[in-house]
């Protein structure tokens, strides 16, 4: 397959990809809390919608709760705490009514908690930390793909049949090195190394977890919002665990 | 029933209560992070054990995870974040093995997250905030009992048949006033009022949630560790939601 045919066969995928990169780059350059909040909020609402479908939940009230939570995150100083507000309200309703569907809590565990952490990451550590995150997650994904194509032999795990141990290891090594150089501009090198490694590994498992949910739901893509890329969750899955891990490591190691 | 017979009939309950008050008072006077961590850790492990039984989970590995998490909370600057560490590791194992029992996550939602918040409360806001919490939760409980005995007519909720709307309202009013005076020594009065009210309401629902769990499990007491008081969870249930709410309100309003 020539380079040209890779492009023509995946034209839609490439075009969508270029638009996504342009949008993310523009938002990074604007570097404003409200814009970041709005952007993450839009991505969050689509992801929440897809997660509701993966969990086979039909309850339109949940969207109002999700939107309300995100509005609160605009003014609350520590957005990641708001997950526990939902948890307490949910458990209280459950205890009071005794007939609340427990499954309704799932979309607040995933992907809600992750988006609250992504906002917290920007809030507490600035745009540089988000760029560092994007570098590590993107290179883990790209590295795993190419190393897997070239040297992949043994399957990594049944949940994601296309992933190989060699690919995953290659992706983590490449992303850790690239992340190390990016992170060294912001923090001391031992932290830069450790955080890049942790974030890269978390991104592999974030990806795997979304595959697991799709497999449980018996679907191929989480949705079809992004032409050629499937759903929103398919695109952001790598960030959903790694954003949490990055905040945890930055707080613990700095 | 004379006052004397109330005492003799509940002798064991009174004696245990006095010992508990003495232990809590001594720990408050010592006011040392390690001692608080150790005390909460012991209460946590018993509560975790009882929660495992309420959820009908038999897996001894979970105790090692709980203890490891608590050890990490000794050195991690923001203990409440550690809940998400467990969540990410759990979801990763679930995706990788595909045969992990999802129920095993429940004791990390309850009561683990709450104990991490109680430690965070001491960590970030000091012993005064814990004393304020104890005043509000204890008076909500005592107030609801006496007002309920005197003026209780309508049932509050089927989950806790002994609670009345009048008792609950009375308890919240009494605790909010007492908490207002305690809190005013630490923060401005509008915050003291709002936080005391929120914490008192949360304590009612924390209590209710534990009743719900026991009802679901079909047991009367969560355990029998405290003679005359039932289990550890029966004693601390009021603190499990209110500790979270107190941290959230202090962070949001100060």
Automatic annotation (TrEMBL), chains A, B:
The biological processes this protein is annotated with in GO are: CDP-diacylglycerol biosynthetic process
EC number(s) per entry = 2.7.7.41
Q: Could you cite one Gene Ontology molecular function of this protein?
A: phosphatidate cytidylyltransferase activity
Q: Where are the transmembrane segments?
A: 15-48, 60-76, 82-97, 104-123, 129-147, 168-187, 236-253
Highest taxon in the source lineage: Bacteria
Q: Where in the cell is it found?
A: Cell membrane
Membrane topology note: Multi-pass membrane protein
The protein's name in its UniProt record: Phosphatidate cytidylyltransferase
Q: What is the lineage of its organism?
A: Bacteria, Pseudomonadati, Campylobacterota, Epsilonproteobacteria, Campylobacterales
């Amino acid at each position: 397959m020539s380079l040209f045919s890779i492009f023509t066969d995946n034209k839609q995928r490439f075009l969508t990809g270029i638009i996504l990169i342009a949008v993310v780059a523009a938002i990074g350059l604007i570097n404003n809390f409200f814009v970041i909040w709005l952007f993450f909020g839009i991505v969050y609402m689509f992801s929440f919608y897809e997660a509701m479908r993966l969990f086979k939940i039909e309850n339109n009230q949940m969207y109002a709760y999700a939107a309300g939570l995100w509005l609160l995150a605009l003014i609350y100083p520590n957005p990641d705490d708001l997950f526990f507000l939902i948890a307490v309200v949910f458990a209280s309703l459950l205890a009071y009514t005794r007939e609340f569907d427990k499954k309704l809590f799932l979309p607040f565990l995933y992907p809600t908690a992750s988006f609250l952490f992504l906002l917290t990451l920007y809030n507490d550590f600035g745009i540089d930390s988000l760029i560092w995150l994007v570098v590590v997650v993107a290179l883990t994904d790209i590295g795993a793909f190419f190393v897997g194509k070239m040297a992949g032999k043994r399957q990594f795990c049944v949940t994601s049949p296309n992933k190989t141990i060699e690919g995953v290891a290659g992706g983590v090594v490449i992303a850790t090195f690239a992340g190390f150089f990016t992170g060294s501009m912001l923090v001391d090198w031992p932290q830069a190394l450790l955080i890049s490694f942790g974030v890269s590994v978390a991104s592999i498992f974030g990806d795997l977890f979304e595959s697991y949910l799709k497999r449980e739901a018996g679907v191929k893509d989480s949705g079809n919002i992004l032409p050629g890329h499937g759903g929103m969750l398919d695109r952001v899955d790598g960030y959903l665990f790694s954003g949490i891990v990055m905040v945890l490591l930055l707080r613990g190691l700095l």
